[in-house]
Amino acid sequence: MIRAVLFDLDGTLADTAADLGAALNRLLAEEGRPPVGYERIRPVASHGARGLIHLGFGIDKQDPEFEDYRRRFLDHYEASFADLTTLFDGINSLLQALEQRGLKWGIVTNKPMRFTDRLVPALPWAVAPAAVVSGDTTGVPKPDPKPMLHAAELLGVPASACLYLGDAERDVEAARAAGMKAIIASYGYISDTDTPETWGADGFIDRPEELLDHL
């Protein structure tokens, strides 16, 4: 029996792509490069700084310029991380339904505490999360299961009694490794080249409220 629900943040609970994209485009402007359109930013927003820098500059973390771009990108994002970010439609009604069923909920994100600790309190939750675990809380991010297990411990619920909702392959991998049920948010930041049907999830939802069917 599911006793708690854990969520990814970017692309699952909150639509953060516009703020992430704005930070990337400010960095590109500094470098004299043209901006990237939102339609190209949204599918890679879940991959954070690494994915967005690759999108904007075509480089990976092995490139000697990567760390400088990453640092500056994060500085731009820090200046406006909540200007355009909103909760996805249906999230608050889902959280209220979870509360009515006596289920706890929490967040497990790869977003650094530097942002999570300020963004989460700034969002208009109908029900506050009972646990928040960031990408650097346990020293390792997803797909390592440690953040998932830590969240379950904070909630006081066995990992096997938790369901995790996310929009990336690493979300499913982490949930599986922690012994949790894994559901994919198809409304999230999934690109045309992703193959979520091969990720091994227990199901898919097109709208947040559909998660109730899996509890």
Itemize the secondary structure elements and their pairings.
Blueprint: E1 4-7, E2 14-15, H1 17-30, H2 38-41, H3 48-57, H4 66-79, E3 86-87, H5 91-100, E4 104-108, H6 113-122, E5 131-133, H7 146-155, E6 162-166, H8 169-178, E7 181-185, E8 203-205
Helix pairs in contact: 1-3, 1-4
Q: Please state the structural category.
A: alpha/beta
Query: How helical, in percent, are the residues?
Result: 25-40%
Helix count, DSSP H or I runs of 4 or more residues: 8
CATH architecture of the largest domain: 3-Layer(aba) Sandwich
The CATH topology of the largest domain is Rossmann fold
Strand order of the largest sheet: 5-4-1-6-7-8
First-residue to last-residue Cα separation: 8 Å
SSE string: EEHHHHEHEHEHEHEE
Strand element count: 8
Main CATH class of the largest domain: Alpha Beta
Task: Give the biggest beta sheet.
Answer: 6 strands, parallel
- Classified in CATH, the superfamily of the largest domain is HAD superfamily/HAD-like
Mean pLDDT, rounded to whole units? 97
Q: How many domain units?
A: 2
Radius of gyration: 17 Å
Shape assignment: globular
Report strand %.
5-15%
